[in-house]
């Protein structure tokens, strides 16, 4: 079953953020069109029905299993927060940007964003897959404020650039970034893998105690609490495959009791050896 949500005109981009955690296959499961239209969302301190700001199109019959539900978002949903929150199955495809906390604590299914996402995409993620075809904000795959456990399972792929503290407090899973990232990549990383194809700003892996960070672009500097160990011709991951080097292998952060591994492509980071 396919459910298409299109922003109504002239409410193209609501100025007040909307709490939209109900936009999820799990919530839409076993509901008729009229029931979905009357689901409540919060715009600021006002509770309104979903149909007040969104046109809803129903293709197919009522579906009990969220795994068989596909949600399509048309328009600028950058002010809509928590889309796909607690999602366990099915799919969401957004043909434009979306707001903060995308896929918060999702445990299954797939989300594809054909645009940019705001901060905290995939925060505290427990499974499933997020594919962002644009840029992502800060704290991708990390933890929300007040939490110290970030992403624990699943996969996130970003085709563009990512902001600060990507993978902060990450417990497991895979994050792949085709563009560049800002400061504190993989801070407090415990387990899991982060692969960046572009360049990375300073303070990579600060206070990491495990896991692996791979950077195929250039890193300006490595924290002094990291130690160069060796060179690797290639590295391989069970959930990703092989990456050809040679790589510079660093261990750290020695400011912590346990350490993780940092691999930097040698031809882009020879300056770190001198």
Topology record:
Layout: E1 2-7, E2 18-19, H1 25-28, H2 33-37, E3 40-43, E4 46-49, E5 54-59, E6 70-74, E7 80-81, E8 91-94, E9 110-113, E10 126-132, E11 153-158, E12 174-177, E13 193-196, E14 212-215, E15 227-237, E16 241-252, E17 260-265
Parallel strand pairs: 1-6, 2-7, 6-8, 8-9, 9-10, 10-11, 11-12, 12-13, 13-14, 14-17
Antiparallel strand pairs: 1-5, 2-3, 3-4, 15-16, 16-17
Q: How many whole angstroms does the radius of gyration measure?
A: 20 Å
What low-confidence regions span 5 or more consecutive residues with pLDDT below 50? none
SSE order, as H and E? EEHHEEEEEEEEEEEEEEE
Amount of helix: under 10%
What distance separates the N and C termini?
Answer: 59 Å
Q: Please report the number of helical segments.
A: 2
Q: What's the total number of strands?
A: 17
Structural class of the secondary elements? mainly beta
Biggest sheet layout:
13 strands, mixed
> What's the overall geometry?
elongated
Brief descriptors of the model:
about 270 residues, mainly beta, 13-stranded mixed β-sheet, four-stranded mixed β-sheet, 2 helices, 17 strands, about 35% strand
């Amino acid at each position: 079953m396919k459910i298409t949500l299109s922003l109504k005109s002239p409410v193209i981009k609501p100025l007040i953020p909307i709490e939209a955690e109900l936009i999820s296959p799990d919530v839409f499961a076993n509901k008729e069109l009229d029931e979905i239209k009357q689901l409540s969302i919060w715009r600021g301190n006002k509770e309104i029905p979903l149909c007040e700001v969104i046109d809803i199109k129903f293709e197919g019959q009522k579906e009990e299993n969220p795994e068989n539900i596909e949600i399509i978002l048309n328009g600028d949903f950058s002010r809509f927060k928590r889309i796909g929150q607690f999602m366990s199955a099915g799919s969401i495809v957004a043909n434009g940007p979306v707001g903060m906390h995308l896929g918060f604590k999702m445990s299954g299914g797939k989300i594809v964003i054909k645009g940019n996402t705001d901060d905290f995409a995939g925060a505290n993620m427990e499974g499933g897959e997020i594919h962002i075809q644009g840029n992502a904000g800060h704290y991708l795959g990390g933890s929300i404020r007040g939490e110290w456990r970030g992403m624990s399972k699943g996969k996130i792929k970003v085709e563009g650039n990512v902001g600060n503290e990507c993978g902060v407090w990450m417990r497991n899973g895979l994050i792949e970034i085709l563009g560049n990232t800002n400061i504190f990549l993989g801070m407090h990383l415990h387990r899991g893998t982060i692969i960046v194809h572009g360049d990375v700003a300073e303070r990579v892996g600060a206070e990491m105690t495990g896991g692996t960070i791979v950077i195929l672009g250039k890193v300006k500097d490595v924290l002094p609490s990291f130690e160069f160990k060796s060179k690797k011709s290639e590295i391989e991951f069970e959930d990703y495959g092989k990456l050809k080097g040679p790589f510079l292998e660093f261990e750290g952060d020695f400011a912590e009791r346990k350490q993780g591994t940092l691999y930097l492509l040698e031809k882009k980071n020879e300056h770190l050896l001198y």
